[in-house]
């Protein structure tokens, strides 16, 4: 019998890629989501007999307890993702990003596995020229970073947990998000031919949305050796500043003009470079380069022109 995976926030940006792939790999998937956007992100897998969508909220304890009881693996994706939306809605950020995760852990038996996606924005502002490793002290600056770091502590506090510290995710997905940095800058390049940048020297790491799914599947397959640990998940050749990212996009949209603002600041103050050596040592390698992702986004943006794909 295949493992049953409970995915919360299953119809979101990550889930819309992860859930179909889990099903394709032979897992049964219970997909919990409010489905509030009504955007059909998981429509294509409705025919799969192993797919069970459940409309509900990850904070509904009686509902979640019933679903957790039937799961072998829990992947809690439900979250308010990003510094701006968490600042705008701090109560929901706290209850969804942190409290609901702690509650889920309390419902789980020792044998059940939990794979948690967090953010490497927990590193905050790094030391110039020094790579952030999984041993680097966490220094989250935004409420988003704080709630995710606290939830990760709870996950790693149990024997059968693992955490993936995701770089800034990019790429097309059935439930699209335009507000992520690469997706946003490429969209502006295609539609506006310009972008105003705050603190363009700030660096961060990047990872394709399909490689996030690959990392989850890799962790499931290698769980016995990876459990109890956090792993940075990003492209080791893509620790780039915003200005460097714009230069990459200009290779494919030559008329794109980035303008660096002399005043103003980035609401998400992350500035660091990241080492992904720990997960690479387990055999994981991303499949999608930043350049391939930019070209993919340019093709995708020929098809969509809609602000509904934001997250705030």
Automatic annotation (TrEMBL):
InterPro entries: Epimerase_deHydtase (IPR001509), Lipid_A_modif_metabolic_enz (IPR050177), NAD(P)-bd_dom_sf (IPR036291). Signal peptide: none annotated. It comes from the Bacteria. Residues 5-234 form the NAD-dependent epimerase/dehydratase domain. PANTHER family: BIFUNCTIONAL POLYMYXIN RESISTANCE PROTEIN ARNA (PTHR43245), NAD(P)-BINDING DOMAIN-CONTAINING PROTEIN (PTHR43245:SF23). This is NAD-dependent epimerase/dehydratase domain-containing protein. It comes from Devosia insulae DS-56. The lineage of its organism: Bacteria, Pseudomonadati, Pseudomonadota, Alphaproteobacteria, Hyphomicrobiales.
């Amino acid at each position: 019998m295949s493992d049953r995976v409970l995915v919360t926030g299953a119809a979101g940006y990550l889930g819309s890629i992860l859930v179909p792939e889990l099903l394709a790999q032979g897992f049964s998937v219970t997909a919990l989501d409010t489905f509030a956007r009504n955007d059909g992100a998981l429509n294509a897998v409705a025919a799969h007999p192993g797919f069970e969508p459940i409309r509900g909220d990850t904070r509904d304890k009686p509902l979640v307890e019933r679903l957790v009881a039937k799961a072998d693996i829990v992947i809690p994706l439900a979250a308010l993702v990003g510094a701006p939306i968490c600042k705008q809605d701090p109560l929901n950020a706290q209850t969804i990003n942190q409290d609901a995760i702690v509650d889920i852990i309390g419902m789980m038996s020792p044998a059940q596995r939990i794979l948690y996606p967090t953010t490497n924005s927990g590193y905050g502002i790094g030391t110039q020229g020094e790579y952030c490793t999984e041993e680097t002290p966490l220094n989250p600056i935004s409420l988003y970073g704080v709630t995710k770091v606290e939830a990760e502590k709870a996950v790693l506090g149990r024997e059968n947990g693992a955490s993936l510290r995701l770089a800034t995710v990019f790429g097309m997905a059935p439930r699209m998000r335009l507000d992520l940095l690469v997706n946003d800058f490429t969209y502006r390049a295609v539609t506006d031919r310009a972008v105003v940048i705050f603190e363009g020297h700030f660096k961060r790491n990047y990872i394709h949305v399909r490689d996030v799914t690959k990392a989850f599947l890799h962790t499931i397959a290698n769980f016995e050796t990876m459990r109890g640990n956090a792993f940075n998940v990003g492209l080791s050749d893509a620790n780039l500043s915003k200005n460097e990212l714009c230069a990459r996009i200009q290779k494919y949209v030559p008329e794109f003009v980035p303008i660096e603002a002399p005043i103003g600041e980035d609401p998400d103050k992350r500035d660091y470079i990241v080492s992904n050596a720990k997960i690479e040592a387990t055999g994981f390698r991303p499949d999608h380069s930043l350049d391939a992702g930019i070209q993919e986004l340019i093709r995708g943006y020929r098809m969509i022109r809609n602000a509904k794909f934001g997250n705030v």
